[in-house]
Design a protein that fits this description.
Largest sheet: 4 strands, antiparallel
Shape: elongated
Structural class: mainly beta
Distance between the termini: 90 Å
């Protein structure tokens, strides 16, 4: 057992001791220990060894206000040396109860043997300092839940050993039209469509918020319907194939 509390000058505290040693782990300067076997003036690091130490123990702080810590136990107490390290070569499996967590503030460099793997189920948010980089050589297959998105702030260079062949889609027919506004060009399975504002128009025509002045045109790669608005006296022309 042990006690650990702050004592003022000449303040006394009592506790029941069961053991064979009493070790002063911390005190401001000196403390007075009173037991049924005698009285002792001890400083930090001092130890009483007595097989019949048990009973009421009184502690009095003889110095300035400060923390007093006393450890009592069986056998002999060997305090750890300052800066002493413990090297763990092997540990048995550790099981955590439900909802238990382990917080790791710092880790040394870890080397994995050939064939060893580390599986990370989840990670907290990671912040990088200015200029820091994080390189990922390979990634496992990634699955996104419905509605999840990945945003990219800039262009990313992609290298691949695969060869892709892109064939241009051609059409054996085409269709044209000229209609008064407003007009919706019907949806159609097409390769592309050119929408033009005739030169004779007196005002602009609009594809949503996109504006075409008289004589201007735009080429779209879309199979859906194209809604065009403008003055009722103006027209829209289109060529699709």
């Amino acid at each position: 057992m042990s006690i650990k509390q702050t004592l003022h000058p000449r303040q006394r505290v009592q506790f029941q001791a069961v053991g064979e040693f009493l070790y002063v782990a911390n005190c401001p300067s000196e403390i007075l220990i009173e037991t049924h076997r005698g009285n002792y003036r001890l400083s930090r690091g001092a130890q009483i060894l007595d097989e019949k130490l048990g009973g009421l123990v009184t502690v009095e702080n003889l110095g300035e206000s400060g923390e007093v810590e006393i450890i009592v136990g069986m056998g002999r107490y060997v305090p750890p040396a300052d800066g002493q390290e413990v090297i763990v070569g092997q540990m048995p499996p550790v099981a955590l109860a439900p909802n238990q967590t382990v917080e790791v503030n710092k880790l040394p460099m870890i080397q994995l043997a050939d064939g060893q793997q580390v599986v990370i189920a989840s990670m907290p948010a990671v912040s990088f300092a200015d200029g820091q980089q994080f390189n990922v050589a390979t990634l496992p297959q990634v699955e996104f839940a419905p509605g999840q998105k990945v945003g990219m702030a800039g262009d990313v260079m992609v290298r691949t050993k695969q060869t892709f062949t892109v064939r241009q889609r051609t059409s054996s027919s085409y269709a044209t039209g000229k209609h008064a506004l407003p007009y919706t060009i019907p949806a159609k399975k097409r390769g592309r469509i050119t929408v033009k504002a005739p030169k004779a128009n007196t005002g602009a025509i609009y594809l949503g918020d996109f504006e075409l002045d008289a004589g201007e045109s735009i080429e779209l790669f879309v199979e859906g319907a194209v809604a065009v608005t403008g003055a009722a006296t103006d027209h829209v022309q289109f060529l699709e194939y």
